[in-house]
Design a protein that fits this description.
2 copies of one chain form a homodimer. Chain A is mostly helical and 178 residues long. Chain A contains 5 helices and 2 strands. In chain A, helix 1 runs parallel beside helix 4. Chain A is globular, with a radius of gyration of 18 Å.
Chain lengths: 178, 178
């Protein structure tokens, strides 16, 4: 299921990219600098939108790297504008485009560790389920919440996007268009 | 991986229960009615905390039901206080306690549908990955964001909780205490 969940995360990054586009349009319609939104936060001791987007991107990028054993380039977290954040998101999507099912064949049993863990480690499965999935959706939803709270016109459909619904059983289905 | 992800969601519901406990303590320390928090929201056209908690609970309850074929009782969504929301969360945790790996053996290929889909359906795998996981974490994180925004003392550790770290390879590990 690793490949399918990463594919879903990649889809959600596409949504995040669009939300920032909607944020820029909203700012334009209200005649304020769209990059004001990049520095907003929901609490004084919580990260601003910029950092939420950066961590969201890094969570899925690093998870794909850890679980596949393929390298990931460190990014300097210098984004300050909505457009720069969109470039960061798109670079993460491009990185994820480079993965296929075979890359995650041994994901569950990978040894995942970080320098600050002092030698402690997690299995790939535990890391994915206990850290990567909850953390990715946390920062994605917090970014959404910051925008919603500040008036950007977003709804649940913008969050979930299109879902793979299949036609009624027994219904006549036309030929697929190639 | 279904069983492990449901287990993680159950763990996160336990965190949500604790956040509401922290919210009640915070209200007490500031001498305001804790149930004021239940009606707060981040935007005028977004659901308040009460509904975020109800949907979060229902998302995982219905997903477990759909993917296992086991029934789930409908709940009337009448909660108004933080304590009532905690009871709702605990009832969901109890429901999830009744599932084991064998219940999800055929999860991926279940046919999932809802009356308003007019006969359209999703596979269990698509429903889980495209709807249940993103939706659960969306409402969980939005509940967290409403509390954080209103001053409740929560941090990332309260969100992620304890993770299964394993001891350094080659380190001497004492006998486990039974």
């Amino acid at each position: 299921m690793y490949t399918e969940i990463f594919s879903q995360m990649k889809k959600q990054l596409g949504h995040l990219d669009k939300w920032l586009g909607s944020a820029a349009e909203y700012a334009k319609s209200k005649s304020f600098d769209p990059n004001v939104l990049a520095s907003l936060r929901l609490a004084p001791d919580q990260f601003p939108l910029t950092r939420q987007v950066q961590i969201c991107c890094d969570t899925v990028k690093l998870a794909a790297s850890y679980l596949s054993g393929k390298p990931a380039e460190s990014q300097p977290d210098t984004e300050q504008t909505l457009e720069e954040l969109q470039i960061r998101i798109r670079s993460t999507i491009t990185y994820l485009d480079g993965f296929g099912a075979q890359d995650f064949a041994a994901a569950a049993t990978q040894v995942v560790s970080q320098p600050r863990w002092k030698g402690e480690w997690m299995t790939g499965a535990d890391y994915f389920i206990q850290h990567a999935i909850p953390n990715f959706y946390f920062h994605l939803t917090t970014a959404y919440a910051i925008l919603r709270h500040n008036g950007v016109n977003l709804g649940k459909r913008d969050y979930l996007g299109q879902q793979t619904k299949r036609p009624p059983v027994g219904a006549s289905v036309g030929p697929s268009v190639g």
